[in-house]
Amino acid sequence: MGVRADRLSEVTCAQFLAEIERERYDVLVLALVGGAVQAVLHGVRALWPEPAARPVLVTGYVGVVYEKLADGLLLRHGADLVLANSRHDAGRFRAVYEGVGADAGAVTETALPFLDGAAYERAGDRAHTVVFAVQPSVPESRTDRAYLLERAARHARLHPGREVLIKLRSRPGEHTTHLEEQPYQRLAERIPGGLPANCRLVYGNMGEVLDGTDLLVTVSSTAALESLHRGIPTAVLTDLGIREVLGNHHFLGSGCLASWDQLDAGLLPQGDPDWLADQGVTGAEGSFGAARARLDELLGRGVLPAVAPYYTRVTAPGYLPGILARHHLAPDGTPLPGALRESGGRSRLRRRLRAHLREAARGVYRQGVQRVAPMIRRLGEL
User: Cα–Cα distance between 57 and 307 in angstroms, integer?
Assistant: First the structure.
């Protein structure tokens, strides 16, 4: 039996570890941020400090890894499988582990799990439907975001035979992982004369939007990888520079880097075949075979060695204890006093109450970010 560990906001890490000690789990998929993964790894080590019939621990990344590579990977070291989404990522992951003298045997090459959809069928030489896939936090400033929106509108005016869609991540006030301080919906209201008739805002599933797309434009969204997987012409914008903070540096060598000026002139970028294969965007058929084989081999052992994370009280004495303490664990991975005190219906009631309070707090924060803060800034500019 397997379980996903992705709800540690609702129970403490200590409570979760107590559950997996009571129940018999074969596999734990740690779909968590790095610090929480590290806490679970040390907690499991504390539960089974010697070779034992413990669960197989699996972790990794879902999308493109272009920031905090070393930090995120080292926080995941110690899992039995660290899934890499491409040959490129697998090489980088192993280099990080080997660079600190840590075992890299857990790194296993797979493929991006969200690549799907029908292959693109070109209808003539020109793009009929252009989709600008926006991101909630890239770029960050209102000036840069307004610039990109204005350029999309200008592209629509220059090409009245094209339909330009601004693909938004969420509706105003809708809960998302990343909060938008400058939503494109608000910026569109400020465009003199409004958006042209052939340019509009759209919501919904990205895969369904890509079904009718002839040119995908973005700064660095993973939508670019979905688009390239289907063979759709894809442009990663260089208008604001090629910078790590934007994430578009990940697409160096892809053949997709382009500016709005070049797109206005008719460019339809095509992905470089070697880059696409190296990134796992193409040729991913059967890419999960190695992970399945590795998992079967681990499950077949019966007894697994004790978890051995790279971060210990010897290698990171000023870093690890703080991470574990945030998850109610002592430096040796055992629960802190009081971490397991709550139990039964009263504990569940408290957890539900905390969940409701957290959701209410998120709503207040979103309103503050999206409405109050911009108003205060405008007043300050008077």
Answer: 9
Exposure string of 270-292, with b = 16+ CB inside 10 Å and e = fewer, is ebbeebbbbbbbbebeebbeebe
Q: Phi, psi (5° rounding) for residue 251?
A: -95, 15
> How would you class 198 by CB atoms within 10 Å of its CB: exposed for 0-12, middle for 13-18, buried for 19 or more?
middle
Task: Determine the pLDDT at residue 147.
Answer: 96
Q: List Cβ<8 Å contacts ≥24 apart for 84-88.
A: 84/60, 84/108, 84/109, 84/110, 85/60, 85/61, 85/110, 85/111, 85/112, 85/113, 85/280, 86/111, 86/112, 86/278, 86/279, 86/280, 86/281, 87/277, 87/278, 87/279, 87/280, 88/278, 88/279, 88/280
| 1 and 28 Cβ atoms separated by less than 8 Å | no
- What was the pLDDT predicted at 72? 95
- Identify the band that residue 208 occupies on the pLDDT scale cut at 50, 70 and 90: very high
Average of per-residue pLDDT across 19-42: 92
Report residue 236's pLDDT band, with 50, 70 and 90 as the boundaries: very high
- pLDDT band, residue 153 (cuts 50/70/90): very high
Integer Cα distance of 306 and 44 in angstroms: 8
Helices 69-76 and 87-99: angle between axes, nearest 10 degrees: 80
Find, among 250, 148, 171, 160, the residue nearest to 196 by Cα: 160
The residue among 193 and 1 whose pLDDT is bigger is: 193
pLDDT category at 356 given cuts 50, 70, 90 is low
DSSP 166: E
What is the spatial distance between Cα 320 and Cα 298, in angstroms, rounded to a whole number? 27
The CA distance from 228 to 283, in Å, is 12
